[in-house]
Task: inverse folding
């Protein structure tokens, strides 16, 4: 999840992120992390 944390620190409201990868790469873990953490780091 280091990558997820790093990417989260680079995003700002209004950014679009395309997350592409395989289940084998466990990309869903990054998506789940973002869904949980993004609202806390970027309140609207």
Result:
């Amino acid at each position: 999840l280091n990558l997820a944390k790093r990417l989260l620190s680079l995003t700002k409201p209004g950014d679009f992120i395309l997350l592409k990868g395989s289940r084998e790469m466990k990309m869903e873990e990054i998506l789940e992390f973002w869904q949980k953490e993004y609202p806390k780091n970027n309140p609207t």
In short: The radius of gyration is 11 Å. The chain has a mean pLDDT of 78. Residues 2-41 form one domain.
